[in-house]
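Recall the central idea of this unit: under ordinary conditions, the amino acid sequence of a chain determines the structure it adopts. In this exercise we apply that idea directly, starting from the sequence alone.
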Amino acid sequence: MANSKLPAGVQDVLPRECSILTGLKLKLQKKFSLAGFSPVLSAGLEYYDTFSGSENALPEEKMFKMTDTDGKLLVLRPDTTLSIARIAATKLGQDRARLSYFADKYDLERAGGLTSREIYQAGVECLGEEGAFSDAQAIAFAIECLKETGLKDFIIDIGHVGYFKGLLEESGLTPNAAEGVRACINRKDTMNAERLLQKAGVKEDALNNILALPALFGGAEILSEAEKLTKNACALGAVSHLKEIDRLLVQMGYEGYVSYDLGMIKPLSYYSGIVFSGLVKDLGAPVLSGGRYDNLADAFGKHMPAVGFAMGLKRILVALERQGALPEEQKPLVIVAEKGKEAEWYRAFLEKTSRGERVRLSALTGEEGANKEREEGFEVLYMGGNA
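Accordingly, the structure predicted from this sequence is:
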């Protein structure tokens, strides 16, 4: 017997869930289009060097690798944003672009629970744009997109990698040590962060400032608290930028949807400015992730500052289910024909679907067939006479 099990971290999507995902995609496609984003789809297979041979390289252990017929190393798409940056820098021939996508990305490192090794995403990238207003627009649009999915009780948590970079300048940490500390701070693990800082011989003031990061979360008031911790120009510039974004979001009417977290520190080699995550009360993992990545396209020969975000559609589906907000299942009307009249009612079926009606012509016939369809919960139109 063939193996019916799947590898850890991947799932089949059954008809009910697939129908809901399709509905989400249609809503978001319209949202993206009306906001001026053009659709694009990057290749699912790329060269390994695309994702490993630059300063923005992804960890090797996160990538599914295989060998091409010519011996070159290939990977399943491990990151959509980097693929979009490649397309924009090498194929579009323009300095600015607003692109949207629906695509799977594959993450070898993740498995089990809410995390997945096959992640179905919807996302947007604003390339060739910079400044606080561009960042505020991206966050505002992320909020509107989450609202469009039907989610409630969500918040966009905003940080800035520049603040941590500024504190690092005062610490004297090597890049490898800094990455270890970053990972600890990002998961609020101050105990191991302190151990790493002490091992590296970081002075007490700089050590205490870095260890204060996990507590710097909440409303806009924490930005003023962050300013008091340091005199570093890079860190203070990051706070100033966040204050300007907050001013814009308040004026745009989104203050109730945002919070700030300077302890949210995503990889410094990838992100260059703001970072943000969409968090839902009923789910222990982000449904949306984004930020500014001004240097991604540089590896492909063109500087295009950029900001964008991706939404995990399967995670959104789980969150909707937990909120009791899944749309009701809409079953088609089932037409059951009298035996001998099947061809006539097939033509009637075509006519109804051409008018936009959702119907199914049953393979069963007669009263017995109609009763079986009713037993399965379908509304039945029994066509015993002429079409």
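The chain has two domains: 15-322, 333-383.
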